[in-house]
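The pair is listed for reference:
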Amino acid sequence: MAAEQNHDGEMCKRVDDGITRVFQLLGKRWSGPIVSVLVHQPAHFADLRRAVPGISERMLSDRLAELGAAGLVVREVDEGPPLRVSYRLTEAGAALEPALRQLGDWAKTHLPDAPQCPGAA
């Protein structure tokens, strides 16, 4: 006869589905920083690349496409001349601002200090 396991409700708790979906999207490298830049204002591709140190053009393009497909970012083309592409947050993307601000505040309090960017004041 097999021994019965003591099984209670605590053992059946799982990670919240919403948290899982958020981190599947924003937990990817670069996605959070891209959104945090766009929270302040729309930006052109080159400006985003400068604002997120270390990201390649290909990765930035891929992440912007993913964020667009998720309904957080909109790509807008200014026919120019010269032709310029800018990105801005949708209403859903802009609604992340309070959560991102809180996460930033939490990091300042609870994570070890990171080295400052060269030239940062």
